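[job 0412] stage=fold_complex status=start
inputs:
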Amino acid sequence: MFTRLKQNRRLLILMALGALLLVCLLIAVSLGAVPISPLNIIKMTLNKMGLFHFTATWQPSDETILFLIRLPRVVAGALVGSALASAGVLFQGMLRNPMADPYIIGTSAGAAFGATIAMMLPVSVAFLSFGLVPIAAFFGALGAVLLVYNLAKVGGKTPIVSMLLAGFAVSAMLAAIVFLMVTLSGRTGLLQNVYSFLMGSISVSGWNQIIIIAPIIIGAIIAARFLAFRLNALSLGEEGAAYLGIDVERDKLLVLALGSLLTAAAVSISGLVGFIGLVVPHAVRLVLGPDHRLLLPAAALSGAAFLVLADLFARTVLAPSEIPIGIITAIIGAPFFIYLLRRTRREYAF
Amino acid sequence: MIKLKQVSFSYGDTPVLHHIDLLVQEGEMVALLGPNGSGKTTMIKLLSGVLRPTTGDIHLDGSILSRMKRRQVAQRVAVVPQQFSMPFAFTLREVVLLGRTPFLSLFSDEREQDHRVVQQAMERIGIAALKERFFNELSGGERQKAILAMTLAQEPKVLLLDEPTAHLDINHQVEILDLVKRLNREQGVTVIGAMHDLNLASLYFDRLLLLKEGRIFADGTPEKLLTPETIKEVFAASVQVTQHPLTKSPHVVVIPKQSPLE
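[job 0412] stage=fold_complex status=done
writing structure:
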């Protein structure tokens, strides 16, 4: 009975968060330069799915705006939010550090490094509808983590502390190289581009990128869910987890790989959106507790909803100009985070 | 049954244990004693399988420990360390549930059966009333009991203790060892514990192993081993040995190098 109750609670919470995400999606797609009523959005979507045939009470252009411009952007925002929040849960759990974020072991610097090189190249190769920058950012992020992991490896083991230190050193090095490249290139446009990559903004054109990124992100989150109970055991530390039958090195590598994949996929379409990967896992943990079996999917849904709203602010508040979304996530996220910290009694101990 | 055959271990180039031969039968209660650096903790880590012998083999019920999967080992062997730190706010019950980790598969959460085992473990240790409290907010003694309940939820055949009472005050030391002794007597759990308190070892354990510089210096009952001469030789400490007033087990009394009376 107890198990049933616990699982039902988990399911109810996730369903509520899923409903919340849907509402956020609906609000976000309805608002913009041309507002579209939520009712029409639902009708158009159901028509598109071939489920119903409502007569059009909307402009044909509304349909174009909805399906080719606004929906891809909002869905991209949801994907980025869920990826960064899940990656935050994975890194915080593995590193046993609630202050960790998805960028802590070099993904951000690696992505910026890759993106900057791509921006400097005179060619703009398109591959599967991706520009060069997202591809370079994706592989830059993964490359940096691979480098950090191998630097931290001593005799078949990768101690957490070595990983954090190696991550810090590699990040500092790559960041310095990025700014050196910008300085030496003498191109004013480059500084602008690098800056906007570092601040983050959701940029997709149509569905082509999403079709590739979505399976990566959703697949990685589902795979991570299977590691959730082992992440609970890892909370006892590497030795304690090993006593409980965990193959610590293998699981650390799995968590690292999934977390990095999620982060790399996210930064490839959004640049470096800060704060969300730190604050969402933290906030969800404070409210729902640290059990990763609930925490991970709940953070993914909350992160998606949070980023969809943040992106809505970013593109509407000063329309027609856009505020970098990283600024919004920090301005909304930080006070909310402080409120949660002060309100709750689920304290942290180190 | 645990059998060590010519087991040696080095951390890098530093040898820690030398050619250990040992046989521990099912249901024994064995204390590892020795000065700091004599290899007690390394022995516990070797027996738990998290460290592998540099040379030699450890046999657990006929299987070679270093060839078993971690999960298989954890289904039979549980470890109570000196202490655990927990960075997140898990409840006591959630921590005890972690003891079921070696029995859960990748694709299934815990079942009704697992919750029963967890509940029984908490009741047996006497902490069921605290189950919804946060682990981090418990006292040191309660936390150590929670860890003991967690290892009990592992339903181990062998319980390894690594100075489990090192950070506890005297009443909790006794409580923890009473519980361990009961597990040993009532459920036949084999207990091997690294201990630093000679008198607690003498009171609770049937067999003592004295380690000195990575070798087994002596192996036998407290009565046989706890003599002023042996202790002088192993610990370089001057002691007198009397009898515990109730149990008649040997009781070690230290003699200060400089008499406080002078």
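[job 0412] summary: Chain B has two domains: 1-76+156-226, 87-154.
[job 0412] exit 0
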